[in-house]
Structure of Polyphosphate kinase:
Amino acid sequence: MARKPIPKPQHLFINRDESWLRFNLRVLEEAQDSTNPLLERLKFLAITASNLDEFVEIRVAGILQRIEEGYTPSPEEIDDALTEQERLELLADQLHSFVHMQYDCFTGQVLPALKAAKIRILKWSDLNETERSQAMHYYETEVDPLLTPVSIDPTHPFPRVLNKALCIAFLLRRKQTKARKSILGIVTVPRSLPRFVPMRCPAGEFHFLYLHELVQARAERMFPGYQIVARSAFRITRNSNLYLEEEEARSLLESVRAELHNRRKGDVVRLEIESGANEELIEQLRINFDLDRWQIFRVNAPVNLSRVADLYSQIARPDLKFPQFTGSLFKLDSKSPDIFAELRKHDVLLHHPFESYLTVEQFLQSAAEDERVITLKQTLYRTSSDSPMVHALVEAAEAKDITVVIELRARFDEASNIRWARSLEEAGVQVFHGIAGRKTHCKLALLVRRDEDGVMRRYAHLGTGNYNPVTARFYTDISLLTVNPEITAAVHAVFNYLTAEADAADYKPLLVAPQTLATELIRLIERETLNARAGKPGHIIAKMNALLDRKTIHALYAASQAGVKIDLIIRGMCSLRPGIHGLSENIQVRSIVGRFLEHSRIFWFANKGKSEVYCGSADWMPRNLYERCEAVFPVLDPELATRLRDQILEAYLRDNTKARLMQPDGLYLRAPRSGAPFSAQNFLMTGKDLPSKTLSKPATKATKKPVKKAAKTKSRS
């Protein structure tokens, strides 16, 4: 039978921006889902707003800039026949539709549910006299000293409005003149204050007043001599891309610091304003910020939904939140005096947050404190504001050789990383900023210890997530602790590359970007393809955040056509089209959005029954494969590799509660539910057995022996 024609090349890929918007829609669905605890729904809604902020200030800003510069994309970059302008117009419609859904969720679903739970968010007009008196006292003591009202006239130019700062615009008219012309007044609402002002209320209830409502209520006092014609809260989003010019006479730290200052002054990309705002007021703002009309987003209050997350911590209602969860602690064998002795017996694999990140913290802290440890090297991409690991590095610098490769250009963490870099340097740590033109995204730590037997050994931590104990509580990630000489020697070679640009001939068994990762990845996929063509089982399971690289997608298409079964677990963007006959019918793409942010990258290859599994810092995106310093590591311990395949990956493939399956057109549908509901994240939290079904098998006509029941693994808790 003749195969159906394969789609034309421009139809092989889904546009990354459309795919991203669909991911954010899946997050919004969690806010709309009444089976989730109410305050968790509020948090999901805030996440969609924060996600959208970054999308606008990076992706939309980038499109606008390309249009302004007359940029023409190369054939390899084109997803469809649309021009950049046509793409922008389509994206604008999608953005407005999404914002409409966000506010429908907030006003139509979440607010009524909050009210039913005796949680009220009040406007000024809702307050009685006693409540107004309380609010005014708060205004006089906490708010008014921080306000700087500005009226716009020839002697007072329009103020420099900060990126994403909540502001209030006033349309003013002088009382003592006959002039009919109105002018603008602007006041910035202090970011240091809570977005929602707590009010006194009956026991068991929670009442809050919008901060901007309180500021607006005192407009006459801020602008004496003016009639307040109209008022409205608004917020602008600026282009936040960094355009670094790295010069010989200028250090990277100085370049990033200078560009951070420029980011605050970037072109305005979006104006959010209350839907009932005065048209003249909107037009004056539009003209001042030089915006097209599609860049104005009228919202049904409050402006800036990302700040509704503040309510989560302000409301002490555990019954409206997910039950508290703390990952299990790794326990040393009774015969092991410390973590180093334990690692000499076997590797340790941790799956965060289901297994506590405290083990990684303690490993690094032990390295800093242990007198037998001579040197310690670590990469830092993002970390917490008060990182115990960084403090340990500072303390250890007095007695050990400490080297840190800190990435100054980690988006939106640049200022924090600059501060850390300075603190570390002042403490005597050798601080490097990686390779010029490439972000250091790998997650590696390496120490050298003279053990009790007199032998000098390397110990390493390799991970998929950042060295951030805060996000480790709600990001899923993999950590490997090992003393394996092949792996630790390769980690050492990676650090030499990062600090001296000393490129090794080989980094095996690691796959390192930009040197070997892309080619080795294609080789692993093609090996499964050749096996399937030879009638042998072919199967790939890959879990990651995003899949955009076209060379990799082409290799996956070829593998599918050869009969390789491909299970992709991709949280966010995916440009591959699954399920197209003659092209990708053997590929299934699923996305899981739940309580924890799926962040781990795990890649499993059947390899004719001698399966290989890798974890690492890199998604299958061009920036990760070709433009960043990344490290993907094999899990060589058979027991740990089996656990990754038969427990962790299998759980995600079984999920029929939080999983959505991607369709050929890029849309997502809930995974069909046959039998009892099963949530991967709940299973990984509770440790209960998987449903007794046959494990996923490769799509092949070749005869294959039954999959053996997963071997019991030693407790890692």
